[in-house]
């Protein structure tokens, strides 16, 4: 019996260490010439869940929208950029202070990569034990990278109090992060830190600022049309 117990402990231990490092591989999909969607993964409520992020390649540098879920996948992402693109990462935008957006910030700082977020995201990052992003804005910031311009905008509270969205002008793409659900989402996902009363109004603020983007990328799931409309529909059921 004792031997059996030791064996099962060993099995449990190795499963645990596997989950801790190297458990997940990021994947990258090309959306356009110089625009890539990447996915990182984590275990959430017993399921493997993916999170979307973006890689934007300008003529002389790269900007990444959101860190992968953990440090290991952040290293994978930086390695991928080095091998496949071979340009320096000018900045990583953190769209709110949850693990699926900020989980690899320590690795980014170790590599001296500039991290950008709203003031509110900095506050929540520190509260939750993450390193603080280093370039901070209040309501909106325009990042110029080479021949490209990227706008990071705070629409108001929604999925979280601090969530921001990113408009990538050269591609007319609006990245909603977790503030926007995919068109196929059946619920609002993790609403532990959400402000359900403000969310729909904050979406209208986003729409005023970026009226008709060609493509909308949600924080999770695919980027088929109808993501904003579905988010508003899900909010109307709350
Ligand atoms: Zn979140």
CATH class: Alpha Beta
Tell me the Rg in angstroms.
18 Å
What is CATH's topology name?
A: Metallo-beta-lactamase, Chain A
N to C succession of SSEs: HEEEEHEHHEHEEEEEHEH
Extract low-pLDDT stretches. 1-20
Q: Determine the fraction of residues in helical runs and give it as a percent range.
A: 25-40%
List the strand order in the largest sheet: 1-2-3-4-5-6-7
Ligands in the model, by name, code or SMILES, are: zinc ion
Globally, the shape reads globular
Instruction: Give the averaged pLDDT, no decimals.
Output: 92
> What's the β-strand tally?
12
Provide the structure class: alpha/beta
Distance between the termini: 52 Å
- Under the CATH scheme, the architecture is 4-Layer Sandwich
Structural topology:
Blueprint: H1 2-20, E1 27-32, E2 35-44, E3 47-57, E4 62-65, H2 71-84, E5 89-93, H3 99-102, H4 105-110, E6 115-118, H5 119-127, E7 135-137, E8 140-145, E9 148-153, E10 165-168, E11 173-177, H6 196-209, E12 215-218, H7 227-236
Parallel strand pairs: 4-5, 5-6, 6-7, 11-12
Antiparallel strand pairs: 1-2, 2-3, 3-4, 8-9, 9-10, 10-11
Helix pairs in contact: 6-7
